[in-house]
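re: ur question from earlier - yeah i can do the single chain one, its not a big deal. heres the input i used so u can compare w yours
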Amino acid sequence: MRLATLPAPDDFDAWRDTARALAAGDVPPDDVVWQVGDTPADLFAAAAEESAPPPPVGTPSVPRAFIDLARSVVMAAEPERFALLYTVLHRLRREPKLMEDHADPLIRKLEVIAKNVRRDIHKMRAFLRFREVADDDGASRYVAWFEPEHHIVRANAAFFVNRFASMRWSILTPEVSLHWDGKALSEGPGASKGDAPDGDPTEEVWKTYYASIFNPARVKVGAMLKEMPRKYWKNMPETALVGQLIAGAQARESGMITQSREAPTIGDNVQAAWAALRDEAAACTRCHLYKHATQTVFGEGPVDAQMMFVGEQPGDQEDLAGTPFVGPAGQVFNRAIAAAEIDRSRVYVTNAVKHFKFEQRGKRRIHAKPDTGEIQACRWWIEQEQMLVRPQVTVALGATAGRSLFGRAVTIGRERGQALRLPEGGEAWITVHPSYLLRLPDPAQKEDEFARFVEDLKKAKAAAG
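and the output i got, formated as tokens:
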């Protein structure tokens, strides 16, 4: 018997190096006992011989699919994961197409394990909640408690570093703790739930926001529990509201139907939720664009607006002013909505991407089109704005805005001038971006296209009532 000892329960590199060496020596899977650290894996571990694996001569090559599968499975809480993976590796030398056989019981078992690990990674990203505390030096630190089912904490570290790069935070779990000081990531021993704070004033703002966007007409309790199991509720401040929100959903839905044709009123909670959302967006690091832009340019307008206009991204002047549509394209926009008899003070105006993307040419900053990843990273903000404002009609100004709203590429020529249904509900119209009119060289064509743009806005206004 050979004893294979790994330094940590999620150390893929150590498992891979050890497994490669054992496979190169053609050591049968039944002759290997795997353990983590000094803790015996089973009764046979004590009797196994701790010896260096043979040198990796003739190390077998394996399909990429196996490497990807193994990276996930190694993080699982399944005690036999290392042995199961090594069994597959050993078989691959004689069955090179084994990974393609998804009916094989061992392959199927490992795929289920990997799926559970990926799900746990997603749950940590979705349900972890930070709470603000004062650090030893008096500065703010944000602390979160999470109880993962698998050994996923280290694998998730990069996500939280990128997502909350400007914050100082700690993530406490029973197995290991992560600490970010704004520059470097460090590890600490596991903790207990008592080491994490219970709450902070920010939670009240977050709960207000959550209650404001809660849509009783779309409550599906079964789907909610499937996606967000009750075991995560105790660490999430907003879940304290779920019971009462569900209990009152039927009454609220009836009220929404009764009042659907009446002028909506703005509650202080909705305005406060929007202000909290805007303040959170000011520190957005969801993509790299924040590193070079002057500031986040959030949407503006009444939160009970019947019309929402979504542009592409802020330009040079918007980036400096912090307000959407104030530059040359904004002047065209203002002239067009005035011609369509739309009062800008009564509509909500925002952009698909909240930071200015540009290329530096000397002293000038030249607009650069956002790519798909940047649009996708910013979709979260648009979705939250839509849930708060709940406009009757949303107007997409240009293809970038269309992609953001529909989650797919749109063709303005084909979909322009007609009412479209948004994936999350609601009506949308697609037209050109005002900057398109600025780029037209022929004055006559520019005048014709401006008139057509105004016609599009009139149709959208009529749809909004």
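The chain has a mean pLDDT of 85. not sure if urs matches, ping me
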